[in-house]
Amino acid sequence: MAKFFDEMYSDGIHTARPHYGEFTRWLGEQTHDAIARKRAEADIIFRRVGITFAVYGNDAGTERLIPFDIIPRIIHAAEWAELQTGLVQRVKALNMFLHDIYHDQNIVKANIIPAQQIFRNAQYRPEMQGISVPSDIYAHIAGVDIVRAGEGEFYVLEDNLRVPSGVSYMLENRKMMMRLFPDVFTRHKIAPVAHFPDLLLDNLRSVAPAGVTDPTVVVMTPGMYNSAYFEHAFLAQQMGVELVEGKDLFVNDEAVYMRTTRGAKRVDVIYRRIDDDFLDPLAFRPDSSLGVPGLLSVYRAGGVTLANAIGTGVADDKSVYPFVPDMIKFYLGEKPILNNVPTFQCRKKDDLAYTLANLKDLVVKEVHGAGGYGMLVGPASTAQEIEDFRARVIANPEGYIAQPTLSLSACPTFVESGVAPRHIDMRPFVLSGKTVSMVPGGLTRVALKEGSLVVNSSQGGGTKDTWILEK
């Protein structure tokens, strides 16, 4: 039997953990055909609503559904409370780090992080040096990927601080479960998540430029062909704000304006879902048609707030990830509540040697990679794939980190053969503004292929509803 932490059963198959007790009784009352019909109904509704995900380079088409599993991931209140405290601690430290590196750089002067790890990082933006942002907040919305391994200990797998996605699926999964199985909700006291858009809007309004009392907030999207466009439109609609593209905005007299049928309207806060490089063709990529010429100059002058801030990517780069526990100690004077996954930095001679000698047992990732691309899962790779990857690491060791292959926790999942364990992770969303806040839960992603550890939607993963049981 595979050695992994089973979220639902304490003995792997028969004895439900206490917080899953009522759900397992309910599940035992359902037939396979009834569950299959409900899953098919969910697929029809999701497709009708337009909840699809663009898959680039997929010959079968550019749009598909993210598979939705009807067996939730359940976490009890006490466990969530500790997890939430650890997430808030981590995101506070990351925001302090971002402010520091773009101002006094004390963490570099203290030799906690090597200067080259920051200033030679492709995500570091020298244009942000010395710029003051409201409340010193850079990562207004953070999606922190959490895994459970070993005997059930939580680990942070990575921090997503640039344009983290997945909130809409968290919300739509809950709506779907309540629609399909209203009876199961009467048997559980599940903490709500539906208020997230209101919380997000309040958070964005709280970081408006100084002196603005009634800020105008917009969601800025690259357009309908972006993989997460559904989410951009969904969040704008849920918050009751305009969804705009770069062509809808213009700069005049150190302010950003939106074109409307009633004339120009000033914009105070832009929740941007566009990467740094494409935001302003005058400052970054001159060939970008997605951004707003002059946006950086307004931002530098304090005339508009960007969420997340330009330059946040340096804090979620995988080469900086190993230093986050040190950041927590340095800025907060606290012991990290949540642990990192042990990480080998291939830029270091000894770590590189260990990595090359153990590729078949490790997960190796590009430091700038995302979405499950540019990585090697040693135990699931062929000898040729390992040798090809070895050459890539040797050619550019600074571009890679390596981690042990964790036995991710598994949750029972409804697959073609019935209910079977599949590996999962979770992305809770942390909002930072005048305060730091969260909704209880997050997006649980599931690797639908038997034995697979890759949960990313772009790599064939699915999603589950996440229940935090209230006391």
Question: Which keywords apply here?
Answer:
Circularly permuted type 2 ATP-grasp protein, CP_ATPgrasp_2, globular, UCP005522, 2 domains, 30% helix, Dna Ligase, domain 1, five-stranded mixed sheet, 471 residues, alpha+beta, 24% strand, 14 helices, ATP-dep_Glu-Cys_Ligase-2
Short synopsis of the structure:
With 471 residues, the chain is an alpha+beta fold.
Can you give a write-up of this model?
- The protein is of the alpha+beta class and 471 residues long.
- The protein folds into 2 domains: 18-340 and 406-469, no CATH class; 344-404, Dna Ligase, domain 1, CATH 3.30.1490.
- The protein has 14 helices and 23 strands.
- A 5-stranded mixed β-sheet has the order 3-23-22-19-18. It has a 5-stranded mixed β-sheet with strand order 13-5-4-20-21. A 4-stranded parallel β-sheet has the order 7-6-11-12.
